[in-house]
Design brief:
Mur-like_cat_sf, nucleotide-binding, Protein-Tyrosine Phosphatase, Chain A, alpha/beta, MurCDEF_pg_biosynth, globular, 3 domains, UDP-N-acetylmuramoyl-L-alanine:D-glutamate ligase
Length: about 450
Amino acid sequence: MRLHILGICGTFMGGVAALARELGHTVEGSDANVYPPMSTQLEALGIGLMSGYAAEHLQPAPDLVVVGNAMTRGNPAIEYMLDQRLRYISGPQWLGETLLADRDVLAVAGTHGKTTTTSLLAHLLEHASKEQAGLSPGFLVGGVPGNFGVSARLGQGKPFVIEADEYDTAFFDKRSKFVHYRPRIAILNNLEFDHADIFPDVAAIQRQFHHLVRTVPGNGRLIVNAHDQRLAEVLAMGCWTPVETFGIGCGDWQATLIEADGSAFTVHRNGELIGDLHWSLLGNHSVMNALAALAAATAAGADPRALLPAFASFESVKRRMELVGEVNGVRVYDDFAHHPTAIATTLAGLRAKIGNARILVALEPRSNSMRQGAHAEALAPSLADADAVVFLHRPELPWDASHVTAALDGRGSTAPTVDALIAALHEQVHPGDQVIFMSNGGFEAAPRRFVERLRQD
């Protein structure tokens, strides 16, 4: 079958393309921005790429058009597809019907931590498969897991681990992507208001999460954050699946911190000691991700005690507190931050590790919710552990960020361009500082540009 994928260079759709090619389909695709690293990864798989969304890209007609959720009416390729009555399907639905129907699906849902937890769960099952045949997983991750080097693969065993996004499926299907996955095991990691462009309030997100809960079978498992009241409210709407909870100091799976920065902790399950866990990640949010992945891997048949050594070899996803350089004692990180809670927990973890050293933050309001100002009131409190903040306030930002920086008691400033932001940081930085660039976009390569600026001093 010849598939044409619209929006093929997005991380999710690129993963769909790789899986389709591995299944033996002829795959091609279009995207507005065809550029490395995704273009390189796809071309190496023998996938043809076309720049732009011209109708001609769908001529001659493919057997099936797989439509990414960034596509909208008015797009030339979409209009041609509809006018010519070509067969089409969304990426999540194609996955659900073609690949996932015969697999034991482990879905990782939540406002934060999906990519890291999905990568970690795949890593744990891969580790377990060395002792227990049949656990080597397939996966689809919204990033590139350091332990695998690719965002998707079919795998050899029955498990398939997938990042389960609550964002909508396609222009013709406004349900959340994750309702198509029909998991046997689902992690509900956390639930907060986000995606203000498609959800009017948190209750609308809760309804989508309950749609996911409705699809998990009675012989499956729900792994649920014990601290999250909104998730408790979701389960109160109706639950037909055994639930295991996880938390720091509470829940069926409990962590007790050994190190305040979250790099070491003790795990108990229902009061029984599992063991101590040591790894390189920081922050309470990382501890919660670890508990969720450990619980899910155990539900899939792995021995939790045998999994503990695997955490030490876990390599996090690119752009999750990724150290991009160290110059004259200044450490520069690139972090995929898009929500105040994630910002706060990331900074708290770093603060616990470094003590009184200074933390400088460069923040780009890049997500739709950030750009709309949905998180404006929570931003200043989330930056409590930062010693200085430079906020990228582009002229087209539709809200005034000055009240955010004003609430930082002299620690905050704005910059209208990335060049100005880098210059402002450079004026403030001293040896020993920790500098974090936070954005869920490309940030115009600001972290690496800043490292080069430091090297020129």
